[in-house]
Amino acid sequence: MDVEAACPVAPKPKKRKNSSKPTLQEIALRFISREGNAGSCSIDENSGCSYTQVTCDVGNFVRHFRTQHPNAARRHGLMSEKDTGARKPRAIAKRLIAIDRRLLLESLTKLVCYHNLPLSCVEWEGLKQLMDPIASALDVTLNRGKNKMIIHAIANRVRAALGKEMKNILLSLKVDSASRFHRHILGINVQYVLDGKIVIRTLGMVEIKERQTAAFLKEKILDVIQSYGVSIEQIFSVTVDNGLTPKIWEFIEHYVQAFEPLDICTKKLQERHVSLSDFYIAWLMTINSVRNMFSNPFAQKLTKALTDRLVKLKSSQAFQMALFVDPRLNFLNSKLFNEDEKLHIQTCIKDTWNRIRRLKPSPSEMSANNSSNSNSQFDDFVTELYGGTLSKTANDATDSSFVQQLKALEAEPRQDHTFDVFKHWMKRRESHPELFEVAMVVVATPSNQISVERSFSALALILTSHRVGLGQDALEDILIIKLNRDIFEKEAELIDWDDLVSNVNS
Asked: Of 462, 453, 452, whose CA–CA distance to 482 is shortest?
């Protein structure tokens, strides 16, 4: 029998990939502009795309090219085979909707400034599908760069409105600082009375890159307030967080029982606005509570520390004025101030009234008061004919009335500690007009900078770990709009949105 020798079967040669065909990563790298570890999209120079990665990831860029630039991606071979085939366009029924540029741009501004979406949200696939047809119909270009320019223009409108609102009035500043992701932010708030209400405005959330010396911070704060047309003469007080000295409070950790009244006082002082006299009352109530802890061995020391702090607070000129116009503390036979202190405070109040008068426009500047102007012209005509000068008895009468009203504060009946001082002075708006204006400045003076600290909470929502690359100007523009929402809502009614789009596109 013939036996054939067993012969091993040679394996089939493996198909080799075409080594000349570039990979997706190699193709994608051609359209990524590199700068160190960072990368930015350059697949379509005409699109205005500003997509950037702090640390370049080619896979993410491929996905970006496919979703945001499908035509360019298909043209350069970056689409997968299933995506390259011809697709039958889906028929979409047309609908009539009422929308204009204002509604579109106002909505996008709120998405970024109110709801904390990034400037690049208009380049997200979902929003892009929704917004692009609307933007195309309204002839508006939407991308991160345009969004940033629009928000900057709106923020400038808000700043201009704030400048007009603060013109010719005395203001109280509040200043604080915070750090987030190694970026140091200086927050500047201002507080005053407007239309019978105490308002708090955010003037700046300024990034500080230099060493924070007292001289540098003073210069930076002056730059911010002067950018609104506010002069030094308009600043009535400045509230900063000096903190409590460790020497005074080093023993508090041992006084657990004494913490309850302090906690109540602290929560009271964290309200949106606590006037200086309300602060003083809350502090007195705390002292009274601690003083009555007869079984607490530490109550005496804590009472002394609180009382010493109260004495220091009372030495402040703004505090003295606030207490003087408060009938809960300054009343007939009150022992709060001695005679020398009363004279000094009255002088300060007069100086404040004079500052208010100097800030007011002169009669020649008040063009709206036509009757006053015509009367003034006629008086000048009579002077030209017959000589002489006008009597200043009206001004003298005003000054005399002001002094009398000021003296009368010492004879006020005493009010209980729940008395509303703000409403008290609002009722005297007509009967004590000059003293009312001073009182409004004084009661609007803040005792804390809580509103600035709350601004930093908004900063935490905007400057997240995913948005650390947000530019300084864009960050401040977003926060100015977010933290002055009521001003933005008013300005939205006045902005010429077509003109704004034209300026941004030019």
From this structure: 462
pLDDT tens digits for range 384-439: 676 666 555 545 556 677 888 888 888 888 888 888 888 988 998 888 888 898 88
Q: What is the pLDDT of residues 55-100, one digit of tens each?
A: 888 888 888 888 888 888 888 888 875 555 555 667 778 888 898 9
Q: Residues for the chain: how many in total? A: 506
CB 459 within 8 Å of CB 178: yes
Residues with Cβ within 8 Å of residue 232, at least 6 apart in sequence: 222
Contact 130, 124 (CB under 8 A): no
Q: List, as one string, the DSSP characters of 411-464.
A: GPPP--TT--HHHHHHHTTTTSHHHHHHHHHHHTSBS--HHHHHHHHHHHHHS-
Integer Cα distance of 10 and 318 in angstroms: 100
C-alpha–C-alpha distance, residues 408 and 240, integer Å = 33
Token couple for 229 = 């047309």
CA distance 356 to 363: 15
Closest CA to 401 of 427, 368, 434, 367: 434
**Sign of CA pseudo-dihedral 158, 206, 452, 110:** positive
Amino acid in position 42: S
For tokens 């003293």, name the residue. 435
Burial of 407 (0-12, 13-18, 19+ CB in 10 A): exposed
